Amino acid sequence: MKLRRVSKSLIFTSIFLAELGVILNSVELLKLSVLPLLLLVFPNFPFKAELMSAKLEGGERVGETLEVSVELRVAGFGLIKAMHKLPDTFELVEGSNAVGKFIAGIGVIRISYKCVPLKRGLYNLGVVFVEAENNFATWRARAKIEFEAKREVKSRVYRVRKVEQRRGIARKPSPEIDLSRIGVPGTDFREIRKYSYGDPVKFINWKATAKIGELMVNEFEREGKKTVWIFLDTNPYMLHGDLRRNCFETAVEIAASLAYYFAVRGHKVGFYAVGHELLIHPESGRRQFGKIYSTLAKLDVSDREESFLSAVERSRKYIEAVKPASIFITRVELSNPLKAVMKATGRGNLPVSVIAIAFRDDSMGGIVENAMRDSTIRKLRAAGVEVTEVEAGKAALVGMVK
Amino acid sequence: MIYILNLLLAEIAGIITYQHFITSPLRYFIPYPAELLIFAIPLAGTVIRKPFSFYYYAVLVFFNISPILSTSETFEGIIDSLKALDAFGTGTAGMAESLKAAFIDQTGGTEGLLAVTWLYVVSEIFQGNWESIRGAMERGVEIKGAYFAFIPAFFIALLFYLLFPFVASRFDFGLDRVVAAFAGIAAFFAGVYLLSRGVEEEI
Q: Which parts of the sequence belong to the DUF58 domain (chain A) (predicted)?
């Protein structure tokens, strides 16, 4: 425990008088040395604080204003300060979360302010600290008031209106109109092909079989749309920038937005957090989006690094089974995902897209990073991979979404 | 505002000290207009750091200490020492006699010292309160009626000042020199320990 400045001064004065009293052998000075000590040990007036009301509105998503209004009934005497505890990732935009008032008897302290959450996560906003200072500013008494106010702040999900797309052998992660190789066969005839093990007997084309001399089956267009697999880079290097311009937060927002876009349009969406080795099996619909979204809300950068190549290897059996379009969201200059992209593309020439998160600054390090990123992007594009650059902190999906 | 308030307290302490000084034997040893420095120091202090500093308080204690010297065995010891040194032809016997004549028979109480100490302590309390309020405001705390905090601080301290002589007069004790020496050493080490702990950062 450290002393307050006033306490130190009072002790110093008392010792000065006591020493002088001892040197001069004076009882009067020794008695006088007690005066500063009496003021020093003068206690706080007892105080009591209780919560009258607490209202928190908004702030459910990153960037959305949270309005806070807390009222305390305080009984005491002196200067009493109250502070509604805000997490570091909340930014005050109006008012103050700390208020003080001179109270003689009973009074009400109102804390009213607006703030903006800058990072997703689960926060406890139900803590108010109250501090009463004694009249001589020598002591402080503190109290903590807790109430139920847990709030989950979720990532922004951008309303993606359209992803550029082209029908054909999907070479791009824009599979809205591409057709799945798996799923329930529909009624639209596609082709006649040789029988392979597992084909239903009802699909055998007996006429063609008789004509060619070996088992042939009818192939129908399959219902359902192409699976999309999102690989989100959560390696430690993604934690770059400040609360407003942050590579990782931007990557999470993009992942959430794309997951929403594809999941609600009937695509199966799979998810892999590179670094955490966390895999969510591909499913479609809002429920799948909710699953991915709640995972994203709790996700933070990993403690150890995992390469994209290793991530694709781990997901290999799923990739081979569902033949997805893959989307890599990463800082390409540091992850260099070229080999992983090639692996994900495979012999089936599956579409892979890379979303490169860029953090631009004019420092020497920034210039070097920019050069490395440009070089990696050139290599990826030369390999036929579609690369979309998104600047950290800027509205996501610019350039990808029309 | 706090500077003006502390300057006022310092000047009041200066006036009390001056009034005491002109009736004390110290006036024989300090020529006019040197004592006027008592009023000038707080003004200079306002410019440099703060009006009522500890150094200024120490100066005021020095000017108020003459009634204590008349009953101090230490002071008597100094006079005896000066007389003893005269045996070596230093001519200090005359000085010892003049000091004795000036101080030993002096009558008077320690009210001036009490008033000056109280004023210094009050100025420190005001300064502490003000620093606490200013620190909080600089960190974004909105404080209503902040300066009301000075009023109870002043009146409670005043109550201490008024009651202290009555309470102190009830405790009368002789101070053995050995006990005084141990008390002095203990106070010194206690002070060193407490003051070495540093000052709390304002939060």
A: 191-343
Judge: B110–A32 Cβ closer than 8 Å, yes or no. Answer: yes
- CA distance, residue B170 to nearest chain A CA (Å): 11
Q: Which residue of A has its CA nearest to B61?
A: A17
Q: Which amino acid is at A163?
A: V
Range of the domain at B161: 2-70+106-195
- Which of the four pLDDT bands, split at 50, 70 and 90, describes residue A207? very high
Distance from CA of B37 to the nearest CA of A (A): 22
Residues of B in contact with A21 (CB under 8 A): 180
Contact A19 B187 (CB under 8 A): yes
Tell me whether residues A24 and B69 touch, CB distance under 8 A.
yes
Residue B93 located in a structural domain: no
Q: How far is CA A215 from CA A182, A205, A219, in A?
A: 21, 8, 13
CA B55 to chain centroid: 9
**Nearest-CA distance B90 → chain A (Å):** 25
A30 contacts on B by Cβ (under 8 Å): 175, 183
Contact residues on chain B for A11, CB-CB shorter than 8 A: 191, 194-195
Please check whether residue A234 is in contact with residue A276, taking contact to mean a CB–CB distance below 8 angstroms: yes
Domain count along chain B: 1
Rounded to 5 degrees, φ, ψ at B199 are -100, 140
Using CA coordinates, name the residue in chain A closest to B74: A24
Assess if residue B98 is contained within a domain. no
Distance from C-alpha of A353 to C-alpha of A172, rounded to nearest angstrom: 6
For B94-114, the pLDDT digits (tens) are 778 877 777 776 666 778 889
CA of B200 vs chain A CAs: smallest distance (Å)? 5
Joined tokens for residue B58: 């120490």
Contact B141 A11 (CB under 8 A): no
- Residue of chain A nearest B183, judged by CA positions: A22
Per residue in A15-53, pLDDT (tens digit) is 888 888 888 878 888 888 888 988 888 877 788 888 888
Here the ipTM equals 0.86
Domains and CATH numbers, chain A: 5-40 (no CATH), 48-153 (2.60.40), 185-222 (no CATH), 228-391 (3.40.50.410)
Confidence of residue A149 (pLDDT cuts 50, 70, 90): confident
CA distance, residue A22 to nearest chain B CA (Å): 5
Residue B152 lies in a domain: yes
Of A28, A35, A102, the CB nearest to B146: A102
Question: Over chain B, what is the mean pLDDT?
Answer: 82
Give, in order, the Cα–Cα distances in Å from B75 to each of A115, B64, B78, B175. 68, 15, 5, 15
Q: Rounded to an integer, what distance in angstroms lies between the CA atom of residue A204 and that of residue A217?
A: 4
Q: Quick check: A76 pLDDT over 50?
A: yes
Q: Chain B contact for A22, CB < 8 A?
A: yes
Categorize the per-residue pLDDT at B202 as very low, low, confident or very high, splitting at 50, 70 and 90: very low
- pLDDT at position B198 is 63
B155 part of a folded domain: yes
For the ranges A63-72, A205-214, A224-233, which has the lowest average pLDDT? Answer: A224-233
Band (pLDDT 50/70/90 cuts) for residue A169 is very low
More confident of the two residues B59 and A139: B59
Name the CA dihedral angle for A159, A161, A167, A171, rounded to a multiple of 10 degrees: -40
Range list of β-strands (E), chain B:
142-144
What's the pLDDT score for residue A166?
Answer: 42
- Most B CBs within 10 A among A24, A83, A115, hence the mutation to make, goes to A24
